[in-house]
Each structure stands twice: as structure tokens, then as C-alpha cells.
Predict the structure.
Amino acid sequence: MATTAHSQHNYIKIFIILSVLTVIEVGLTFLGLPKMLLAAMLITLAVWKAALVAMHFMHLKLEKKTLSIVAIIPFVLCVFLILMLLPDIYSH
Amino acid sequence: MSEAVAVHGGVEPAETPLTPESWGKLGMWLFLAGDAMSFGGLIVGYGILRHASKTWPVPAQVLGINLTAFMTFLLIVSSVWMVLALAAIQEGNKARFNKFLGLTILGGAMFLGCQAYEWTHLLGHRLPELKIFFSTDLFATTFFILTGFHGMHVTGGVIYNTCVLAAVNRGRYQAKHVEIAGLYWHFVDLVWILIFTFVYLL
């Protein structure tokens, strides 16, 4: 039971981090930062939050590597998709 | 029970993804990977259309960020309730499990309620005021496709979780089934985190 209590404590900690990051995200949009800087910061925060959910709530941290590989494939393919489309984007 | 303690203690994973008892989990992960590619394709498509458009409204000036920040919060809380429900059933505490999975479902339903309100308001008032039309405007089209595709996932998740709640109480589902349902639910939360950033904040 002690281990379960510990993991629940950990879930609440992750929850607090996620909430704080969300507040920071919304707050950042009001600061009037340069567009590229704001975009970079917001995307970093979003990826950070998504990683927290995957690692802790979806237990990727505790699982065998196979599942992490399965999970990472879509992201690799999306980056690939963006790279393949870059020539078209910059022809405008 | 020993399985539950092992998973939660972080000492060693009780299940290996290629053993029969966790094929369900591996199956859900494979499904989610495919689903992530659907979302990925839509988000990348959205980014490219937005980049190529000469004009694009500032999302924060058209959409209600406060409401959707609250919706983000709802899904995150709902995810936490889901892990607490899983922890409860792994301990064998049925009452606590029922409470937290019930709350998870309620959180999802509230999210859908907020989204229904948001869409009604946008379609009925906000977009016509700004002369943005769903049929001709890429901003509106991509917005409704992305949030709609995600909203359908939330709807599916609420139904899924309700079925799991019923099946556990009828003794047909155990902790491992709850864990698989949890994976889906957290994925829906994860995708919303990304959509919230790309569609609402950027």
C-alpha cells in the first residue's frame, strides 16, 4: 500500500505541474512577445506537457521500451511529413 | 494484486509487452499510434494552410481562450481522476474506483458540454459577426475539423469509460482493462494539450 500511496502523491504532483504550465502558457500570450519567440516557447511547453502525460499517466516511464518506440513513431513521421512539405511551403 | 503493486512501485514492469496478458495494452498503443498519425496529419495540414494563407485571424481575438483554458484544465483533472481510479481498482477498492471513474466520465461530459456551448456561440454569433464563414474560410474549416475530430474522440472516450465502469461492476473487467481504457483517455488529454496550443494560443 505504501507504494500506491507514493504513486498517488506523484500523480498529484504531475497534476500541479500540468496546471501551472497551462497557466504559464495562457499568461505568455498576453505578454506581447515577438511571434517566433512566443511560438517556440508555447510549442516547447506543449510538448513538455504531452511528454509528462505520456510518461507518468500512461506509465511509459515504467514500461518496456517497445511501447515507447511505438509511441514515438507518429512524432517522427510528423516531423518527416513537415520536412517533405517544406519545399512547397517556401515556394509561396 | 502483486501485478498492481509491481507496476506502481516502479521496481520492475510486471508485464512485458510481448506476453499474452498485455497484448491488449500493446494493441491499444498501436491503435493510438495510428490515431496520433491522423491527428498529426490534420495538425500539419492546418499548419501548412495557415502558413500559406495571406490573412489569418489572431485566434485569441476570435475564440474564447478562458473557456478553452478551463476545458484544458477539465481534461487534465479528468486524467488525474482516471489514474486514481486505476490505482483504486489495483488496490481492490471498488467504492473508490467507482467514485473516481465516475468523476472521470463527468469531467469528459463537462468538456463536451463546454465544447457544445463554444461551437453554438461561434456558429451562431461570433463568426457571423466577424464575417467568417465555415464553408469558405480556412480558419473556420480547420478549427472545426480539428476540434470536432478531437471532440468525437472525447465522446468515444466517455462512452468507453462508461462501458468499463459497468463491466467492472458486473465483474467482467479487471484492473488491466481499466489500464487500457486509461491509455485511451490520457491520449485524448494529450492531443487536446497540443490542439489547445496550435489552434487557440499560437
